Every structure is written in C-alpha cells, then in structure tokens.
Amino acid sequence: MPRPTAKARSAVSRHPSEYDHDVAILIDDPRWPAHGRLWAHLVSDSDLEELHAFAEANGIPRRGFDRDHYDVPDEAHARLVAAGAQHVGGHELVRRLIASGLRVTARDRRAGR
C-alpha cells in the first residue's frame, strides 16, 4: 500500500472535515463484544491526525478513540468502508499499526503512556 502523499497529509492538517481519500485508514471485522454489541477497530497506518480527520468526517465521536485506534460499532462498519476505510483482517491491521510506529502496547497502556 503506498504511503500518503505530502498533498494528502496537508489536506488532513487543514481541517478534520477535509479528509483526503488517498490516505490509508484500516478497519477490521466487528468481532469484539462490549455493551451488548460487536465492535471493530479503526486505525491509520501513518498518522493519528489522519485518523481523527477520517473519524470526524464520518461521525465517529472522539470518545471512541483509545490511544491508537477508534472502537466503532458493527453498524458503522459498512458505512466506513464505503467512505474509504480499507477492510483488513485483525492480524493485518495490527501488523500495519505496529509498522507505522503508532501501536500502543499493553505494557505502555499499563504504564499510562
């Protein structure tokens, strides 16, 4: 997957509602149960500003953000894919999040980082 261009990065930094669809946002399967529903993870493979811009542009509240990803309900999955999120398996999502340098490990979470 190609990395976002400088143009894409600058479009994201202008305003969150101006999400550029050339950047890589990833979503896995909604398979994590909580609060009576299933949840998926929404991540960026390059930067958090890009992720926040995509989430805001698609009505995902900031309270759904958890250090390196958004938790999104199963009913939002198809809408987010239609908006440009790339559907990948859970292992691929984690692999690409680690490769981006954005992954917050369990150790870091326990340490409050």
Notes on the protein architecture:
- Strands 1, 2, 3, 4 and 5 form a five-stranded mixed beta sheet that branches.
- A hairpin with a 2-residue loop joins β2 and β3.
- The protein has one domain.
- The longest helix has 11 residues.
- Helix content is 36%, strand content 18%.
- The protein has five helices and five strands, in the order αβββαβαβαα.
- The chain has 113 residues and is α+β, with helices and mostly antiparallel strands.
Structural class determined from secondary elements: alpha+beta
Please report the number of helical segments: 5
What is the distance, rounded to the nearest whole angstrom, between the alpha carbons of the first and last residues?
A: 29 Å
The overall pLDDT average reads 84
SSE order in H/E notation? HEEEHEHEHH
Largest β sheet strand count, sense and barrel closure: 5 strands, mixed
Range of helix content? 25-40%
Q: β content, as a range?
A: 15-25%
> Count of DSSP E strands?
5
Instruction: Provide the low-confidence segments as ranges.
Output: 1-17
Integer count of domains: 1
* Global shape: globular
User: Roughly how many Å is the radius of gyration?
Assistant: 13 Å
